[in-house]
Amino acid sequence: MQEALQGALRRPDHKAVRVTDAFWGGQLNKIHTVTVWDVINKFEHDQEKGILQNFEWVMQGKTGEHVGPPWYDGLICEVIRGVSDIIAVTGDQKLIDKVDAYTQAIAGAQDMDPDGYLNTYVTLMRPDKRWGQNGGSLIWQHETYDMGALIEAGVHYYRATGKTALLVCAVKAANCMCGVIGPEPRKNIVPAHSLAEEAVLKLYRLLSDEPALAETLRQTGLKVCPQDYLDLARFWMDHRGVHHNRASMPHYMGEYAQDHCRIEEQSEAVGHAVRAALLYTGLAALGIETGDRKYLDASMRLWKNVTLTKLHISGGIGAIHNEERFGYQYDLPNDAYLETCAGVAMAFWSGEMHRAYHSAEYIDVLECALYNNVLPCLSADGTHYFYENPLISDGSVERWSWHGCPCCPPMFLKLMGCLQDYIYSYGDNALYVNLHMGSALQGEMGGRPFTLEQKDCALPWKGSNRIVFSASAPLAFALHIRKPAYSGACTLLLNGEPVQPPMKEGYWVLDRQWNNGDEIALTLELPVIKVEAHPYVDADAGRVALMRGPLLYCLEEIDNAGQVDPLLDNSPLAVEEMDLFGPAMAITGRSAQGEALRAVPYYLWCNRGPGKMAVWLRQDAQPGENALGAQAAAGFAAHAPQNNQTASLDGWEGRLYRAYRPKA
Ligand code: FUB
Ligand code: ZN
Question: Is the pTM of this model over 0.85?
Answer without folding.
Answer: yes
